[in-house]
Structure formats: C-alpha cells, structure tokens
Design a protein that fits this description.
Largest sheet: 7 strands, mixed
Bound molecules: flavin mononucleotide
Order of helices and strands: EHEHEEHEHEEHH
Distance between the termini: 44 Å
C-alpha cells in the first residue's frame, strides 16, 4: 500500500510539512509506504487548456519543466492521495492550485476510486474554504474523500507553533488511520470480486445546449 503526500507550500520544512509529517509517521506505523512531493518554490505554470494531455498515453501535461508530471505519475501509482496546502487568502496557495488544475485535467480520470484527503495549515482563518477547494478536485474525479474527527487543519506560522496544536495533530493522525483502513478495505474488496463500478461518460451537455 502506498500513499502520495503532496506539499503545496513553497516551504519544504514549514507548517504544512510538519502537518504531513504527523500523517507520515502514522502511515509508517501502519505499514503504508509514503511518497512525498513538494511544489516548492520553483516556477509553476498554469493550465493553458491546450488539450495535449488528452493525447498523452501517460496522461502527462505538455509542460515538463515543473513538478506536475511527477505528481501525475506518483498519484497514478499510489493507492491514496493527501494534498497539503498553506492557506493563502482563504484558498490553497496559487502554485498548488496550478499544479492541481493540470494534474486533474490531465489525469483526474485515472485517479478514480482512490481515497483522498486534503489538509491545510493557517495562521488563523480560511481553512475550511481551502479544504473545500482542494476537495472539489477529488469529488468530481470519483475519488473517495476521507474524513477525520475534525476538519484536517493545523494552526501556526512556524512548525514549532504547529507542534502546540495538539487537536490539529490528533485529527491528522486519525485521518491517516482512516485512510489506511479505507485503502485496506478497498484492497480486500477487490480481492473477493468487488471491482470498481462502471463509470458512464457518454453524456456531456454544456449549459448553453
Ligand atoms: C500570501 C499569503 C497569504 C496568507 N493568507 C492567509 C490566510 O488567508 N489565512 C491565514 O490564516 N493565514 C494566511 N497566511 C499564513 C499561512 O497560511 C501560514 O503561515 C501557514 O501555516 C504557512 O504554511 P507553510 O509554512 O507550510 O508555508 C498567508 C501567508 C501568505 C504568505
């Protein structure tokens, strides 16, 4: 079992990293392998809606000069996905949003029926709006959004402040266990013939027609 942890923050060792670390420890204790990717602080392109990804056998984006195609490959390989974001103006940070736009436009269909979770870190507010924005990628891609004992957020401007958010960290540990359990159940179900459901896609009606 393998889970991809994607950190959207420009800070490799910031608050979002501290939050993901809490989940990583819990996954490790439960025998789940973890792959980590950082959006980091290099330039990231936005989606240019060129449609090249639809013709890519690997479901890759036309731009290979940032982390997006690595995210696409790792997410397709993984059994589950966790996306972590700092809160920027009550939203996911812009670079992460650009990576998610391109990842899901190119490969969202390949991620169906994988458990997914969003987590965020904020100084103070805008957390649930940020989680909702990230969950929207999952929820229109047939992914299974996993919950916890509270919304999966921590508070702080330094990792040391996040350490003090005991309930936030507890929520993340519970989330990691819930994801592990969900992945185990799906795996066991497939083993006894519970295949993924058929997905209808023939109807595509725009609002103007
Ligand atoms: C451009 C920018 C916008 C921010 N907007 C918010 C905000 O809307 N609400 C909030 O509580 N914190 C906001 N913050 C603070 C960060 O969300 C917070 O410090 C977060 O824990 C940083 O995580 P990181 O260390 O992983 O980057 C903002 C920070 C920046 C740089």
């Amino acid at each position: 079992m393998e889970v991809l942890l994607l950190n959207g923050s420009p800070h490799a060792h910031g608050c979002t990293a501290r939050a993901l670390e809490e989940m990583k420890k819990e996954f490790a204790e439960n025998g789940v392998e973890v792959t980590e990717l950082q959006v980091g602080n290099n330039p990231v392109r936005g989606c240019i809606a060129c449609g090249s990804c639809a013709r890519s056998p690997e479901h890759h984006c036309v731009f290979s000069d940032d982390v997006t195609n690595q995210v696409i490959d790792a997410a397709q390989r993984a059994d589950g996905l966790v996306v972590g974001s700092p809160v920027y103006y009550a939203s996911p940070n812009g670079a992460l949003a650009a990576v998610l736009d391109r990842t899901f436009y190119a490969a969202g269909r390949e991620l169906g029926f994988k458990p997914a979770a969003s987590i965020c870190s904020a100084r103070r507010a805008g957390t649930t709006a940020t989680l909702e924005a990230i969950n929207k990628y999952f929820l229109m891609s047939n992914m299974l959004v996993v919950g916890s004992t509270y919304w999966a957020m921590v508070h702080g401007t330094t990792p040391e402040e996040v350490d003090q958010d005991k309930e936030g960290l507890q929520t993340l540990r519970n989330l990691a266990r819930n994801m592990t359990w969900t992945m185990d159940c799906l795996n066991a179900g497939e083993g006894i013939g519970f295949d993924k459901p058929f997905v209808e896609r023939s109807a595509k009606t725009n609002f103007v027609r």
